[in-house]
Amino acid sequence: MNKRYFRLFIGVALLAASYWITVWLHHDHSAIHDHHTPRNTVVERSPATDVTREQQRNSIILNSSSPMHPCPLSPPGLVGPLRIEFDWNRTMNDVRKECSEHLQEGGRYQPLECISQHKVAIIIPYRNRQDHLKHWLYYMHPILKRQQLDYGVYVIHQHGEGTFNRAKLLNVGYVESLKEYAYDCFVFSDVDLVPMDDRNLYRCHDEPHHMAAAMDKFGYKLPYNTYFGGVVSLSQEQYMQINGFANEYWGWGAEDDDMYKRITLKGMRVSRPDSRIGMYKMVRHLRDAHNEVNPRNPDQLHHTSSNMAIDGINSLNYKVIKINKDTLYTMILVDIHGPK
Ligand SMILES: [Mn+2]
């Protein structure tokens, strides 16, 4: 009895197996291979291998007659944790050679393999930090390409030796980048901050997003709960709701707290990546000249709710002195009319 059932079972199993083998042999595997091609190349990290991967994708596009599709929700080429080091001495020219592949003039990029769903202007307030900028560009371009963003890099360079004004420079970057392209998302980033995980996506979310959630200089945690410094992203809509940033925070401090207040006063909340993905490494540096801590800045926070309507993007005044289109970035030298 047992033996008969066993034979019957073997017979059925063999029949099923041969059926599946037949089906498998007749299946069109080219589709599966297409999916695997980009995924196989996921673990490349250095810009040099990045180029090879993009060339491969490029040839895939050229060889296919189908129109481009929207990029997938999560980019397939991400690698996760990154090794970030600042103690190398490549020149800006070296970085240009290594990272310029597929960039358009002005530090612009669009994915070759699909249509990006994220038009992102990355705005960097800047003065006399060429060494930091070099590190930032070296690491960021490969990351942003892997994130399949339609992006541009805007370095907003404050002219002269007057007191620095980070938030006002960010407002200038918003206005100037929009003159060039219909960006719908803005990432405001310090020049000395590089993410340690490329899953920290440089895009916008349903809420204003604080990306630098775990900086090395704060022991990889928030210095305080309402911290909104370092790197943040806001959609155009979110940015306009708060009238942009304050223009009157001269010198170091509190302008980021003012941003946080504006956001919460408008009933929005701030979102963050988790502290593993939100890790950042900062280039070590001394305090810049003419960006001293301004002890009057925190007092201004008492007036954010009344100032927000009159001080911001609607009161911004400045004068562009020069626009320099490098391969790796657009640098806008600007006079922001500092206090005399
Ligand atoms: Mn810093």
Give an overview of the whole structure:
This protein is an alpha/beta fold. It has a domain of 232 residues: Spore Coat Polysaccharide Biosynthesis Protein SpsA, Chain A, CATH 3.90.550. The protein contains ten helices and eleven strands. The strands form two sheets. Strands 1, 2, 3, 4, 6, 8, 10 and 11 form an eight-stranded mixed β-sheet that branches. Strands 5-9-7 form a three-stranded mixed β-sheet. A hairpin with a 4-residue loop joins β10 and β11. α4 runs parallel beside α5. The longest helix has 25 residues. About 8% of the residues have low confidence. The structure holds manganese (II) ion.
Question: Would you summarize the structure shown here?
Answer:
The protein is α/β, with parallel strands linked by helices and 340 residues long.
Sequence-ordered SSE layout with sheet pairings:
Blueprint: H1 2-26, H2 30-40, H3 47-63, H4 92-99, E1 108-109, E2 119-126, H5 130-146, E3 150-158, H6 166-180, E4 185-189, E5 193-195, E6 209-210, E7 214-215, E8 231-235, H7 236-241, H8 255-265, E9 279-282, H9 297-300, H10 304-307, E10 319-325, E11 330-335
Parallel strand pairs: 2-3, 2-4, 3-11, 7-9
Antiparallel strand pairs: 1-3, 4-8, 5-9, 6-8, 10-11
Helix pairs in contact: 4-5
The structure holds manganese (II) ion (MN).
Residues 190, 192, 282, 285 line the site of manganese (II) ion.
Helical proportion, percent range: 25-40%
* Residue-averaged pLDDT: 88
Shape category: globular
User: What is the rounded Rg?
Assistant: 25 Å
CATH level 1 name of the domain at 104-335: Alpha Beta
Sequence of secondary-structure elements: HHHHEEHEHEEEEEHHEHHEE
What low-confidence regions span 5 or more consecutive residues with pLDDT below 50? 27-54
Count of helical segments?
A: 10
The fourth-level CATH homologous superfamily of the domain at 104-335 is: Spore Coat Polysaccharide Biosynthesis Protein SpsA, Chain A
Report the span from N to C terminus: 103 Å
What is the level-2 CATH architecture name of the domain at 104-335? Answer: Alpha-Beta Complex
The small molecules bound here are: manganese (II) ion
| Strand content bin | 15-25%
By CATH, the topology of the domain at 104-335 is Spore Coat Polysaccharide Biosynthesis Protein SpsA, Chain A
Largest sheet, strands/sense/barrel: 8 strands, mixed
Q: Based on helices, strands and strand pairing, what is the structural class?
A: alpha/beta
Number of strands: 11
